[in-house]
Structures are given as structure tokens and as C-alpha cells.
Amino acid sequence: MTDGEDVWIARLTPVTGGVSALLATPLGLDVWERGSDHLVVQATERQLAELERRRLARVERLSTRDEYISRMQPDPAQQDN
């Protein structure tokens, strides 16, 4: 998925057609969450830029995948021995 390209966790809000229409579009997105008015996805910068270029969705880049994974790792200092 990467080839050195940034991978993002992003919130997509469809501009027209709603979430179902966005899901029906062959974009190759890794959908993590589906809300009534948005999707949370893992996608490359290239995929997100294409969504913006085609005006299919408003894109809110929440964090890179690496930042997200880092935040979700347990803090060794907080763990009980």
C-alpha cells in the first residue's frame, strides 16, 4: 500500500451521494468505521488527493498510520509489573 508514501487515518465526509455512494465507488480504501455521514479510512496520500481532486469527499487527515499505532501502543511506564 505504501511504496514510501504516507499512509493516513482520515475522516471522509461525502460531498454528494452520501456514504453509500462513496462506498460504491472503486477507490481501494481500507474502511475502519462507517458513520451515517462519514467514513474513517486508512488510505495513502495519493488516494486522499484523488478524492479531493474529484470532489467526492471532504478529507480530514487525522494522523499518519505510524502516529496512530504509536499512540495505541501501551506505555511501558504505565503497566503494572
* Helix amount: 25-40%
Biggest β-sheet strands, sense, barrel: 4 strands, antiparallel
Pick out the low-confidence regions: none
Backbone structural class: alpha+beta
Count of the domains:
1
**Ends distance:** 38 Å
List the secondary-structure elements in sequence, H or E: EHEEHEH
For the biggest β-sheet, the strand order reads 2-3-1-4
Mean pLDDT: 90
Count of separate DSSP helical elements: 3
Approximate strand percentage: 25-35%
Q: How much is the radius of gyration in Å?
A: 15 Å
Envelope shape: elongated
Instruction: Count all strands and give the number.
Output: 4
Would you kindly provide a written description of the structure presented here, covering whatever features stand out?
The structure is a single chain. The chain is 30% helix and 33% strand. It has helices at 18-24, 45-53, 65-72, and strands at 7-14, 30-34, 39-44, 57-64. The chain is built from three helices and four strands, in the order E-H-E-E-H-E-H. The chain is elongated and about 50 Å long. The longest helix is centred in the middle third of the chain and has 9 residues, at 45-53. The model has no long low-confidence stretch (mean pLDDT 90). It has one domain (7-73). The chain is of the alpha+beta class. Strands 2-3-1-4 form a four-stranded antiparallel sheet.
Keywords:
81 residues; alpha+beta; four-stranded antiparallel β-sheet; 3 helices
